[in-house]
């Protein structure tokens, strides 16, 4: 019985499509066994997406998803890629602690299944190829939280843990996250072959991406240019989604940018607490390159690096080729601006577009930034702001230190609502459907981590259920409350 049948998915007789490209793109190797593995957490929502049976979580699955065994047909592999890290060419990178087990097919959708933390690969450089429990919990929870928020992302099926020691700043315990996505291909995959002058391999890889992930681009006059434009549009939509929800990635290197427009590689991420456009969530980012406000521009820079990688595939005058690729990137700006404006209109409950909306939104964000008012709570409470001029609602007004300035903005907002005859009863559920009550704040993740490190995994399970319904008021009010004072002392870095 093949491993697809073991997991209850639709059987597929051929290997993972990426592996057909050949050994120049990947290395086949088994995972390194993890001692005494145990279940830490599983996502029923992700299991449902994969079409797994209810009883999929068994001892055999535990061993396979910890790297201790393989099902029939599994030929694990790690891929090679390169990339720019913090704006500097870093050379060859690759799946240093990720192993692809193969593919599942369900409902016509193909899913790559990958173990993160399953040991060294040829691309581990000086790393040990392991993941620690702390970072695995963060990635697991945030992957599933982002999916529930409706933001394109890789998914996480489960975490398995072990008492096996892993040295980071301190000695921690090992864990493995099972991640799934239609593809884990990154900008850095294309950069790798372009940088090393391997044009045949670059051409093969682009043909693979076109065939499996952008078939509509194959009929374009210049398919690589059409592909670049598609990636630019998807990336713009992703950046707008991040900015609207207040998500900071932390390490937007080109090797962490998805060719499919997915949120990829959850390391030192963070959701905004107090609104600070210059907030840097990654303690290792000393220059603030990946600050919240800079994320859209960094993505555009990364797209230029991707365009540079595609240049060798396009014949003709170099200047003309550069112009062609530049034109393919130009929709990024327009799509990002349109999606941001649409997303912020939705967050403010505006049904119709007016020319003055951008100024109203900008002034709202300046108001939040003035004293770093909590981003998630302010938007959630705004949904209950009454449109009637004689009414007020203290829970919103009182979170602003400069209440007079808030009152001036609120007057403009009420006038704007009045122009489209906005009804409070109708507007409230519409706004609450786009303004989450709960996001994965660092202190929520930290509480789950501390309990898990003490052997109690129930907080992960509880928090996961809350995060999978982010637009509902949680039963535990503290999940949606202001962060405690100690949360400001939490730091996440590239080792997170």
Q: What is the tally of beta strands? A: 12
Instruction: Report the oligomer.
Output: single chain
Indicate the proportion of strand residues. Answer: 5-15%
Biggest pleated sheet: 6 strands, antiparallel
Structural class: alpha+beta
Let me know the average pLDDT.
94
Percent in helix: 40-55%
Q: In angstroms, what separates the terminal alpha carbons?
A: 38 Å
- Counting DSSP H or I runs of 4 or more residues, the number of helices is 17
Task: Characterize the overall form.
Answer: globular
Radius of gyration: 23 Å
What sequence of helices (H) and strands (E) makes up the elements?
HEEHHEEEEEEHEEHHHEEHHHHHHHHHH
Binding site for Mg(2+): 256, 265
Protein name: Protein nucleotidyltransferase YdiU
Family: Belongs to the SELO family.
Active site: 255 (proton acceptor)
Structure write-up:
40% of the residues lie in helices and 14% in strands. The protein is of the alpha+beta class and 496 residues long. Among the domains are: 3-184, no CATH class; 188-340, Transferase(Phosphotransferase), domain 1, CATH 1.10.510. Strands 2, 6, 7, 8, 9 and 10 form a six-stranded antiparallel beta sheet that branches. A two-stranded antiparallel ribbon has the order 1-3. Helix 5 packs across helix 8 and helix 8 (295-310) packs antiparallel against helix 9 (318-329). It is globular, with a radius of gyration of 23 Å. Its cofactor is Mg(2+); Mn(2+). The active site is at 255 (proton acceptor). Belongs to the SELO family.
Task: Write a short abstract of this structure.
The protein is an alpha+beta fold and 496 residues long.
